[in-house]
Design a protein that fits this description.
With 317 residues, the chain is α/β, with parallel strands linked by helices. Helix content is 32%, strand content 25%. It has helices at residues 42-52, 67-78, 121-124, 128-132, 145-158, 174-177, 187-192, 205-215, 256-269, 274-288, 301-307, and strands at 5-9, 13-20, 34-40, 56-64, 86-89, 95-102, 107-112, 136-140, 161-165, 180-186, 223-226, 231-236, 239-244. It has a nine-stranded mixed beta sheet with strand order 5-4-1-8-9-10-11-12-13, with helices on both faces. Strands 3-2-6-7 form a four-stranded mixed beta sheet.
Length: 317
C-alpha cells in the first residue's frame, strides 16, 4: 500500500516532566517522585506518531540555539525523522513544556512557545513547494494564529488536504476552520470552536456523534472529537461514526491526544477513510496511555494495526 507524505507544520519543545502523587493546591508545594526531560511539542509528537504509523513525514518547525535544541534534534534523529525542515532561531529559546503527572494518570501542562513563535505566516511562503507535494498537511494550535490561517490559505490554493488539531483552542478564523478536513478537537476544544456548546460533561459518544455531524459544512469539512477514555467520534459528508476506546489502565495521558492525531493523519494520507483511520487512532491512543512519557509510549504500525484488529494486507475501506 502506498503511504502518502505528511508534512507537519508545528511546535517542537522539550518536555520537563515531574511525577507526583497529586497536583498541588494553589500556594502548596509537593515533592516529585521522578523527573525526566524528553522530546515534546504537539508538532513533534504528532510527527513521530505519524512516522511510527508508517507515513513519510517531514516536520517544519523551529528551535533555538541552545542545549534543548540539541536534545530535541537528537531525539528526532533517533526516531529516524529528517530534521532539514527544522530551522534554528538565534535570539529565542527552544520551546519548553512544564508537565506534571499525578498518580491518577492525569496531567497539567504549561507551554512556553520560544522559537516556535518564529514560525510565522511569512515563513510559510518558503515552504509552499513542500506543502504542494504532500498528501496531507497537519498543524496544531501551538503556532501563532496568523501562521495557521496562512497555512489554510496555502492548502486551499494548492488543493492539499489540511488537518488541524485545534489544541490549545486558539481563535482561528472561520475561513481557516472551513478548510479543515478534519478539524480534530477534544470536547473542551470542540465547544470553543462552536461544536456541542450545550453538551454536558460526560455525554455519550452518540450525543457527541450527532453534534459532530451537525458541524460538517458549518464549521469544517469534516470533524473528529476525541473523548478521552470513552473513545472518539467523527463525521464527514459521507456519514458519522463513533468508536469506543478499549478499557485500559491509564498510567500517563500526556501526549495521548497527539498520538491519536498523528496516527489519524498517517492513515488518512495513505487512503484510509475517516472511520477506519479513527478506529486505528483510538487503538494507538489507548496504547499510549499505558506507559509513561510522550513519544516513548507510542506504538509501531504493526502493533497499532494488531490492536485495531486490521489486517496490514487489507485494502483501505
Amino acid at each position: 500500500m502506498a503511504r502518502g507524505a505528511v508534512v507537519v507544520v508545528g511546535s517542537l519543545n522539550v518536555d520537563a516532566t515531574s511525577y507526583v502523587e497529586r497536583f498541588p493546591e494553589p500556594g502548596e508545594t509537593v515533592t516529585s517522585r521522578a523527573f525526566r526531560t524528553a522530546l515534546g511539542g504537539k508538532g513533534a509528537n504528532q510527527a513521530v506518531a505519524a512516522h511510527l504509523a508508517g507515513a513519510d513525514v517531514e516536520l517544519v518547525a523551529r528551535v533555538g540555539d541552545d542545549a534543548n535544541a540539541a536534545l530535541a534534534l537528537g531525539a528526532l534523529e533517533g526516531f529516524g525523522l529528517a530534521t532539514e525542515g527544522v530551522g534554528r532561531v538565534a535570539d529565542a529559546p527552544t520551546g519548553v513544556a512544564q508537565i506534571t503527572v499525578a498518580d491518577s494518570g492525569e496531567n497539567t501542562v504549561i507551554v512556553t512557545g520560544g522559537a516556535n513563535l518564529a514560525l510565522d505566516a511569512d515563513a510559510l511562503d518558503s515552504e509552499r513547494a513542500h506543502l504542494a507535494a504532500a498528501a496531507l498537511v497537519l498543524t496544531q494550535g501551538e503556532l501563532p494564529v496568523a501562521t495557521i490561517e496562512r497555512l489554510a490559505e496555502h492548502c486551499e490554493e494548492l488543493g492539499v488536504r489540511l488537518v488541524v488539531n485545534l489544541a490549545p483552542p486558539v481563535e482561528v478564523s472561520a475561513a481557516a476552520l472551513a478548510v479543515c478536513d478534519p478539524l480534530v478537537v477534544n470536547e473542551h476544544e470542540a465547544r470553543a470552536a462552536g461544536i456541542g456548546t450545550e453538551v454536558a460533561a460526560g455525554a455519550s459518544l452518540d450525543e457527541w456523534r450527532a453534534h459532530a455531524a451537525a458541524a460538517v459544512g458549518r464549521v469544517a469539512r469534516s470533524v473528529v472529537v476525541t473523548l478521552g477514555g470513552s473513545g472518539a467520534v467523527a463525521a464527514s459528508p459521507d456519514g458519522d461514526w463513533a468508536e469506543a476506546a478499549p478499557e485500559v489502565v491509564a498510567v500517563d495521558t500526556t501526549g495521548a491526544g497527539d498520538c491519536f492525531t498523528g496516527t489519524l493523519a498517517a492513515f488518512l494520507a495513505e487512503g484510509r477513510d475517516l472511520a477506519e483511520a479513527m478506529r486505528i487512532a483510538v487503538a494507538a491512543g489507548a496504547h499510549a496511555v499505558q506507559a509513561r512519557g510522550t513519544v516513548d509510549s507510542y506504538a509501531t504500525r504493526t502493533a497499532i494495526l494488531a490492536a485495531a484488529r486490521i489486517d496490514e494486507g487489507a485494502p483501505p475501506a
